[in-house]
Design brief:
FAD/NAD(P)-binding domain, disordered N terminus, 5-stranded parallel sheet, 31% helix, Elongation Factor Tu (Ef-tu), domain 3, flavoprotein, 7-stranded antiparallel sheet, RsdA/BaiN/AoA(So)-like_dom, alpha+beta, Flavoprotein_PP4765, NAD(FAD)-utilizing dehydrogenase, disordered C terminus, BaiN-like
Length: 454
């Protein structure tokens, strides 16, 4: 099959014109993983004229996507595009071109095509009108079926058998091989492994000489060794509208006291920094401002009106502090709260909490680490594995919650799908930028009657 890169030997099909493609001539592409990245790659490939089968080892597709929708599916964010891209931190220079090629508005348009209008919340986050993932997924799977895409569930990916063949294990437990002209790997990270993303692919990639940054929990809760009294009294209690600070990084919002520490958007936003600091130093300190909208001077004046004989708890409750907030202040300063108004105000504005680490992958929202961007080209093809493309959380990037994770999944899925289509000789016009038929005038969508063997 031409040049060989054992154990892989995927070689691009001879270029063909869309009008010349028949059911027999159309190249076959396997997509491994039925999350958003895999589904989007499959759609791009099918619209370009490839025969596509998605292999998913779970009984149903997009389980983590559905889980994300249980609390209201945050599909993307409405902020300025350059600021949006900056949220990806060190990976922004790699993710940026992909997001620019498929920006948040394009994702909103995609949802609208599937019958799910979106709206911008007060925080700038974008949600489907139904707040759910299930209607969007149902409509999407229906459209994919109409494009001739097959989804083979309960099929585990075991690796490659050489000569462009996949190793798979079917629902009956029997192993078999399947030839493919190209493969898109969208196996996810390793967070919430019970939903399907287990990270077992990392060893396969490393054995092939591909650099993989170790997977680590991202967007996860902070671990704190609460005192038994505080844990017993305040587990499950919220701390409303607080500001968290670690070094020069700040995050604001609501957090919740848990048995093992703190959860919530601001905690997730700082979790990567806290993880790295705790790994390096054994612990990290995060500072909580319980009144971020009140200046230190104003708070000091308010607290200076305290009656001489009134207890801390009574005074602070009458000043508007919740029992959980008072408990947190005592936890931060176990030797006793200061009676001096300025010192007490300073503690309220900067209460230290010792973080021993972050929650593990089994509870993390997402995964940091993955296939290094130096190992892939602009089409997300692994340079050491010609014909193999990667998308989604398999790539080495870390993003906060707020729609950035899903936007990256869609953008990288589209990039990998287009890249595979170009590799197969199906897509050569850079102007063919979208997914809808009007955006791809020269592409061929397989007829709905096409059925391909899995």
């Amino acid at each position: 099959m031409g040049q060989s890169h054992p154990p892989f030997a995927f070689v691009a099909a001879a270029p063909v014109e869309a009008a010349q493609i028949t059911d027999v001539a159309a190249p076959f592409c396997a997509v491994i993983g039925a999350g958003p990245a895999g589904l989007f790659a499959a759609e791009a490939l099918a619209r370009a004229g490839a025969r596509v089968v998605i292999y998913e080892h779970k009984p149903s597709p997009a389980r983590k996507f559905l889980m994300a929708g249980r609390g209201g599916l945050n599909i993307t964010h409405s902020e300025n595009l350059e600021r949006f891209i900056a949220r990806y931190g060190a990976a922004a220079r790699h993710i940026g071109p992909l997001v620019r090629a498929f920006p948040p508005q394009a994702l909103r348009d995609f949802c609208a095509e599937l019958g799910e209008a979106t709206f911008v919340g007060s925080s700038g986050r974008v949600f489907p009108a139904s707040f759910k993932a299930s209607p969007l997924l149902r409509a999407w799977l229906t459209r994919l079926a109409g494009l001739g895409v097959a989804v083979a569930t309960r099929h585990a990916f075991l690796g490659f058998a050489g000569e462009g063949r996949l190793r798979l294990k079917g629902p009956d437990g029997a192993e078999f091989t399947r030839p493919a002209d190209a493969v898109v790997l969208a196996l996810g990270g390793a967070s919430w492994p019970r939903l399907g993303s287990e990270g077992g692919w990392t060893e396969l990639m490393r054995r092939s000489g591909v650099a993989v940054t170790p997977l680590a929990a991202a967007n996860s809760g902070a671990l704190v060794d609460w005192s038994p009294i505080f844990r017993g009294d305040f587990e499950g209690q919220p701390l409303k509208t607080v500001l968290l600070r670690h070094g020069d990084a700040v995050a604001r919002g609501d957090v919740v006291v848990t048995r093992t520490g703190l959860e919530g958007g601001p905690v997730y936003a700082l979790s990567s920094r806290l993880r790295e600091a705790a790994t390096q130093d054994g612990a990290a300190t995060v500072f909580l401002d319980l009144r971020p909208d009140t200046s230190l001077a104003c708070l000091t004046r308010k607290l200076s009106r305290r009656p001489a004989k009134q207890s801390h708890a009574t005074f602070l409750r009458r000043a508007g502090f919740s029992r959980a907030e008072i408990g947190l202040l005592r936890e931060a300063q176990p030797d006793g709260l200061p009676r001096d108004a300025e010192a007490l105000a300073a503690l309220i504005k900067n209460a230290p909490v010792k973080v021993t680490g972050v929650a593990g992958l089994e509870r993390a929202i997402s995964t940091a680490g993955g296939v290094a961007f130096d190992e892939v080209d602009g089409d997300l093809m692994v340079t050491k594995m010609p014909g193999v493309f990667v998308a989604g959380e398999m790539l080495d990037f870390d993003a906060p919650t707020g729609g950035y994770l899903l936007q990256a999944a869609f953008a990288t899925g589209l990039a990998a799908g287009r890249g595979a289509a170009r590799y197969l000789g199906l897509l050569r016009d850079e102007a063919q930028a979208g997914l809808s038929p009007s955006h791809l005038p020269k592409s061929r969508a397989p007829e709905a009657s096409n059925k391909y063997s899995v």
